[in-house]
Each structure stands twice: as C-alpha cells, then as structure tokens.
Amino acid sequence: xxxxxxxxxxxxxxxxxxxxxxxxxxxxxxxxxxxxxxxxxxxxxxxxxxxxxxxxxxxxxxxxxxxxxxxxxxxxxxxxxxxxxxxxxxxxxxxxxxxxxxxxxxxxxxxxxxxxxxxxxxxxxxxxxxxxxxxxxxxxxxxxxxxxxxxxxxxxxxxx
Length: 160
Fold this sequence. Notes:
4 helices
C-alpha cells in the first residue's frame, strides 16, 4: 500500500501509525500531491469535507479551498486506476448540509471526470451525542463511501 500526503506532519503521523499498528513494512508513506506514479486496482481518498479556505494549518484536514483536493482526485482518478479498478471517495454530506456544494454539483464533477458511481454506502455516527436531542451533534452528519470507476469499463448505476 502507498499512502500519500503533502504535509510533513501528516507524513510523520502516518509513519508512526503504521509502525504502531505493526504494518510499517507493508505501507509506503510518500510525499505527493494526491497520486503516486502508476496505476492501482484500488485508490482511496478522504479529502477535507468543507470547500472553504482554512485559516490555520491544522484546518487543512477539514477545509479544502475551492474543492481543490476533491477535484484533483476525481480528475486524476481514471488515469491512476488499473483496468477494472475502483476509486473509493470518503465524503461527508457536511458541505451539502451547509449549502456549500449540492449533490448535483458532486454528480457533475464525477461525470466530468469520466467516472461512474458504482455504489454509495452511507453511514451515521453511533456515539452517545447523536442520541441526545439537546446536543448540537444530535443531527449528525452522514458520511458516504462512493465507489467510482472509469466510465470505459463500468456498468450503469443509479447511485448518484
């Protein structure tokens, strides 16, 4: 497995996590802007979820100015997938909930990148705060796993 990050702190954290979990010999952590060279049968991306400008370096984990990382992943995915491969996009509905991006805009980005959604799996958090209606996190967000493939080899889907 190859994990890519741009931020030196994220690279160090990924290496530490791989070592702590005992998988360091199977995980190559590499500095790169999204994709390493080559193609893979599975490419996974969990971009920052809010298309807005961060004010502090730590906020780059949440804020993605102009959806740069999301757009970069979608636009480059087909060129980095092995034949029949899948790209998994892990994305919160938070941007939709805040009115910063619509589902139609996301569907258009996917289509414009010559990709097709094979499936979308949604999940909600299960921690105690989401069961307490007095807590602001009660209306918990939905996180989706979008299974994407290049249009050239994908069957039709109605996931989007």
